[in-house]
Amino acid sequence: MTMLQGFQIALHALRLNPLRSFLTMLGIVIGVASIVTVFAIGSGAQLRLQEQIRSIGANVLMITPGAVYQGGVRLKDGSKLTMTESDVQAILEQIPEVQAAAGSIAGTAQVIHEGKNWNTTINGTTTGHFMVRDWQLATGRYFSGTEEAGAGKVVILGSTVARELFAPGDDPIGAQIRIMKVPLEVVGVLDRKGPAQDDVAFVPLATAKLRFLGSASNINRDSVAYIIAKVAGDGQMAGSRSEIENLLRQRHRVPAGQEDDFKVQDPAAAMEAQQGAIRTVALLLVAIASVSLLVGGISIMNVMIVSVTERTREIGIRRALGGRMRDIRLQFLCEALVLCLLGGAIGVAGGVTLSMTVARMAGWVTSIDGQAIGLALAFSIATGLIFGFYPAHKASKLSPIEALKTE
Amino acid sequence: MTASPPLISLQSVGRTYRTDGVAVTAVRNVSFDIAQGEIVAVMGPSGSGKSTLMNMIGLLDLPSEGAVYLEGADVADLSEDRRSSLRARSIGFVFQSYNLLARHDAIENVALPLVYCGIGRRERLARAEASLQAVGMLHRAHHFPRQLSGGEQQRVAIARALIASPLIVLADEPTGALDSRTGAEILALFAALNRTGQTIVMITHDPGIAAQCRRTIHLHDGELVADETPAPALPKRSAAP
Ligand SMILES: Nc1ncnc2c1ncn2[C@@H]1O[C@H](COP(=O)(O)OP(=O)(O)O)[C@@H](O)[C@H]1O
Ligand SMILES: [Mg+2]
């Protein structure tokens, strides 16, 4: 008897009782579907984090507002813009490891070009921002010194904004767009950095303060919302971080023992830690899903054992008609394999559907790779072989004479 | 020209079952030969060891004493796998209770032994059709056992026994579950098969049936008590004069 015949006999036997066959493979279906889904969501989350890490740039420190005390009362972190342009200047001048630094303020607004219209993040900053983030231009130029100093009406677009406002053939450079009724000339379009990063328009910091924030009272003319700084070498992150902390504590006159009114963070390191955490959680979930696979395997073994008992006479007949022990073993092993493979295939389909649904409904990035599917299928084949072997072996060991005597 | 060995030869065959320390001797010291082309009835009361003997001739069981030779070869020297393959190719079983697979239709049941001869599906089905035709059951090829009467099921079972052109057909009380008319029809089928040269061994306890066979072996308490060939003896197909 060949493998193919084994599968034909198995399919025949399983088709006779479709509901039972389906219930038998349900554990495998659920196990495989969970593995595929967990993999898809986990690797999607990893991809997004990696993109964010890449988009921040290498060796970048981020300084954001911290605790603020007003009359002895601690206000929420970030409730006041405590960082200033002079802080940026001081960091650049006094800390040799810092190669570039820039302050930013940001908000969202509608950008308009002719008939087209797009809601995006407006980031007021200096050319240093692009240096810190290693962000190259696709076309055009960065802000000039005059534009930065004189609140020039210029804008650099992220690639998403450029795509939304301009037809594919159009050259955005030199075009006029409007943000909050202010006409601005497009001087540059940035390289793509990732879907979450490219939806942005940059204007000079002075332009943002003067033309968009106007006389907003809580804004000191010198304030920035956050500062990013690029440190020269890999090994100098921790050192530079404490130097910046010391410098700012001194400049902000933070009394000894009081919480800083700023925070210096290493976003890439934080995200890497997060990535590690995601990996751990994903592995944990896969382990849980594997338990379901195990339970599925046991359920298959159970049903197969019952089936061998029920079909003892069939086994006797097959032996009498010339079936060898290994033919009987192959027949039942094929049944277990077909159950697992079919369950695995349904599970993969279910897992793919589920992760795509999650992706659409929750807006998460999911990524289905062949590796995860292959792994899940390999798992189900292994389950079939492991849990199918004992019943198949038992069937093959039956004495044909005894088997023929059973009712 | 040397004499070729008999198709089947039993030499001082005994079979003792041992269960829970109790030994039951079902067959003791039985010797006889079966030549190609014979039809032999095996008679004896219930429990006299007929089925046990049949199982040994059919390579389903091995003797605990003596030896069974198939075409001169001691079957005890063959591996379990080899004996299985011989069952597929050289032995055709017919059982009292038909033993068709309930979940397969007639033609698939008939084709089953060929699965274990490594023959492809197309040829299996073609040969199964021919075999069904030979027993007059081709018109029921796609009926399931439960849709067939006892006599019809037994015809299908005979078609299955014949499909691999076996050296010998072994029938264990093939008419035992049938009414006398249907039994007579089945018997006529066996007789017709034997006329074409098919060797047949048939267990029965109906003397009327045994009388129609040229040779009858009587068993009692596991022992061979008579091996009769009623006169006139017809010329046997023998290899040497
Ligand atoms: N597997 C077995 N274990 C123990 N005793 C058995 C077994 N099979 C048959 N016997 C005994 O051997 C004797 C002959 O049985 P069997 O060959 O089936 O007789 P028959 O077919 O002539 O009715 C009976 O006494 C029966 O109880
Ligand atoms: Mg019997």
TrEMBL record, chain A:
GO MF assignments: transmembrane transporter activity
Domain MacB-like periplasmic core as annotated: residue spans: 21-246
Keyword Repeat part of the UniProt annotation: no
Lineage top rank: taxon: Bacteria
Keywords for the protein's UniProt record, in alphabetical order: Cell membrane, Membrane, Transmembrane, Transmembrane helix
Stretches assigned to coiled coil: none
Domain ABC3 transporter permease C-terminal: 287-400
Record localization: Cell membrane
Transmembrane spans: 21-42, 281-309, 330-352, 372-390
Membrane topology, record value: Multi-pass membrane protein
GO cellular component, one term: plasma membrane
UniProt keyword Endoplasmic reticulum, yes or no: no
PANTHER family documented for this protein: ABC TRANSPORTER PERMEASE YTRF, MEMBRANE COMPONENT OF TRANSPORTER-RELATED
Family indicated by similarity: Belongs to the ABC-4 integral membrane protein family.
Protein name as catalogued: Putative ABC transport system permease protein
Organism: Bradyrhizobium shewense
UniProtKB/TrEMBL annotation, chain B:
Residue ranges of every copy of the ABC transporter domain listed in the record: 8-241
One cellular component term from this protein's GO annotations in UniProt: plasma membrane
A GO molecular-function descriptor: ATP hydrolysis activity
Signal peptide feature range: none
Record keyword Cell membrane present: yes
Keywords: ATP-binding, Cell inner membrane, Cell membrane, Membrane, Nucleotide-binding, Translocase, Transport
PROSITE patterns: ABC_TRANSPORTER_1, ABC_TRANSPORTER_2
Transmembrane segments: none
Pfam families attached to this UniProt entry: ABC_tran
Family that this chain belongs to: Belongs to the ABC transporter superfamily. Macrolide exporter (TC 3.A.1.122) family.
Function: Involved in beta-(1-->2)glucan export. Transmembrane domains (TMD) form a pore in the inner membrane and the ATP-binding domain (NBD) is responsible for energy generation.
Protein name in the entry: Putative ABC transport system ATP-binding protein
UniProt organism field: Bradyrhizobium shewense
